[in-house]
Write a structure and sequence with these properties.
The protein is an alpha/beta fold. Helix content is 25%, strand content 24%.
Length: 321
């Protein structure tokens, strides 16, 4: 397990219209796409290496998954713990188009999660759209699981975790990725042995549609309640989907015809996505549990939007065990 730090940052340059032509797509302050296909991303969040304070009790390092596609992952391993740790494979958010496993907010959050849960965490730095539109991120997620299988018998870190207890986890677009990766793997259980996908944890998963939901209409008029606006949501889908597709594309939806696995859906009450996330759980209460956090918006657990502390409310019939 190498200690190589893998970080790529690109900042928005206001002078690039002279070089690359006019801007054809943009999420203000986050990403610009120019007429010639050139893409720029702002340095919204500081990118950091894998170092952590010793007192946290977590070891961290970066590993390459696929050098050809530049997909890599950051591993978090609790120190001074027994073996047989559950493994959380985590996909970051960012509308499929921005974000990184090296973003400081994810680095700090996942380090704390590993320490408090006593789980090993693998944070995946998957390929981003629009250079790599969906399903590239799904393919990267599947490849990560196959990479784990190949190294299950000859890696020190693999010997510390229980690969029969793997959970696919993600927030926002990462929640969508975790769900669609699970749908691709659920019928390949025999091929994955000794690995086993135990379940998914979807934190405010990013789904969409052409028709507007009530939460999309109401939250859109109160931008202070959520960092994700309806306009930004539409823009992310336009950038991430295959050319010519709209928000009725299957990538925008939960997979209907799949063998269900245990799933926890975390919903923010003031999120534009709330209704879509709640609908995902309806009719599948035996395997899908949901937890609603009151008074907070999208990505509150990562960005601490408006400094609001989340208050958990478990929906009746949705007790998580």
């Amino acid at each position: 397990m190498g200690a190589t730090t893998l970080i790529h940052v690109m900042t928005i340059n206001s002078n690039n219209t002279n070089i690359h032509g006019p801007v054809v797509d943009e999420v203000e302050g986050l990403i610009r796409v120019y007429k010639d296909g050139h893409v720029e991303r702002s340095q919204l969040v500081t990118c950091v290496g894998p170092s952590l304070p010793l007192e946290l009790g977590v070891a961290c390092s970066d590993v390459y998954i696929d050098k050809l596609t530049n997909v890599w992952a950051r591993l978090y391993i609790p120190i001074d713990t027994n073996s047989n740790l559950p493994l959380l494979v985590y996909f970051h958010g960012g509308g499929f188009c921005v974000g990184s496993a090296s973003w400081s907010c994810y680095h700090e959050f996942l380090a704390r999660l590993s320490a408090s849960s006593r789980c090993m965490v693998m944070s995946v730095n998957y390929r981003l759209a629009p250079e790599n539109p969906l399903p590239a991120a799904y393919e990267d997620g599947v490849n990560v699981i196959h990479w784990l299988k190949k190294r299950s018998s000859n890696s020190l870190w693999a010997k510390l975790c229980d690969l029969s207890r793997i959970f696919l986890v993600g927030d926002s677009a990462g929640g969508n990725i975790a769900h669609h990766v699970a749908s691709r793997l659920v019928t390949a259980t025999d091929d994955l042995k000794p690995l086993r996908i135990e379940g998914t944890i979807l934190i405010q998963p990013f789904f969409g549609g052409e028709a507007r939901t009530e939460s999309e209409r109401s939250v859109e008029n109160n931008t202070k309640s959520s960092i994700l606006t309806l306009a930004a949501s539409d823009a992310w889908w336009k950038l991430a989907l295959p050319r010519g597709a709209n928000r009725e594309h299957p990538y925008c939806k939960p997979v209907k015809k799949m063998v269900m696995m245990r799933t926890l859906v975390c919903v923010a009450e003031m999120d534009v996505l709330m209704d879509r996330e709640m609908e995902m759980c309806d009719g599948n209460e035996e395997v899908i549990k949901r937890v609603v956090y009151k008074g907070v918006g999208h990505a509150f657990h990562i960005l601490g939007w408006a400094g609001v502390q989340g208050r958990r409310r478990v929906v009746p019939g949705s007790t998580v065990r």
